């Protein structure tokens, strides 16, 4: 959980630094600055949104998964002495920030994840 907090803190620090940059150059064809920023971020892919007052686009995503398995009898041609059970849970969060720099496009990607539980291998697979 500590790594998750550090990852989110790092994302917030970078977002604050990016927000201090100049906003996107003037809008075209009567677009507002917000509309121009939204169009710029939409071009980067699904889920990106504009950070107000800057050229930064951000996408936050995450995943949660869980599984359970059990086996009795024989697994992989080997007899089991006792039934096998296993479970696993995984969770993670990602932050993807893209922004303009004097040297060209910049990107910061942070992923923090955690997996708990038992996993078993059958015949080294």
Largest sheet: 4 strands, antiparallel
Spatial arrangement of strands, main beta sheet: 1-2-5-6
State the end-to-end distance: 30 Å
Helix content: 10-25%
Number of domains: 1
Report the sheet-strand fraction. Answer: 35-45%
Count every beta strand, where a strand is a DSSP E run of 2 or more residues.
6
Q: Return the structural class.
A: alpha+beta
Number of helices: 2
The overall pLDDT average reads 74
Order of helices and strands: HHEEEEEE
Apparent shape? rod-shaped
Our Rg estimate from Cα atoms comes to 23 Å
- The low-confidence parts are 17-27
Describe the model.
The protein is an alpha+beta fold. Helix content is 22%, strand content 42%. It has one domain (2-117). The protein has two helices and six strands; from the N terminus they run ααββββββ. Strand 1 and strand 2 form a beta hairpin. The model is unreliable at 17-27 (pLDDT under 50).
Q: Can you describe this structure in just a few lines?
A:
With 125 residues, this protein is α+β, with helices and mostly antiparallel strands. 22% of the residues lie in helices and 42% in strands.
């Amino acid at each position: 959980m500590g790594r998750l907090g550090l990852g989110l803190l790092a994302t917030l620090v970078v977002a604050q630094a990016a927000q201090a940059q100049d906003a996107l150059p003037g809008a075209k064809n009567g677009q507002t600055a917000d509309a121009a920023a939204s169009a710029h971020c939409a071009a980067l892919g699904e889920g990106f949104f504009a950070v107000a007052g800057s050229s930064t686009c951000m996408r936050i995503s995450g995943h949660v998964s869980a599984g359970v398995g059990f086996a009795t009898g024989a697994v992989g041609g080997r007899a089991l002495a006792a039934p096998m059970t296993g479970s696993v849970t995984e969770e993670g969060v990602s932050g993807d920030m893209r922004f303009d720099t004097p040297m060209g496009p910049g990107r910061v990607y942070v992923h923090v994840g955690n997996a708990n539980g038992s996993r078993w291998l059958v015949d080294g697979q």
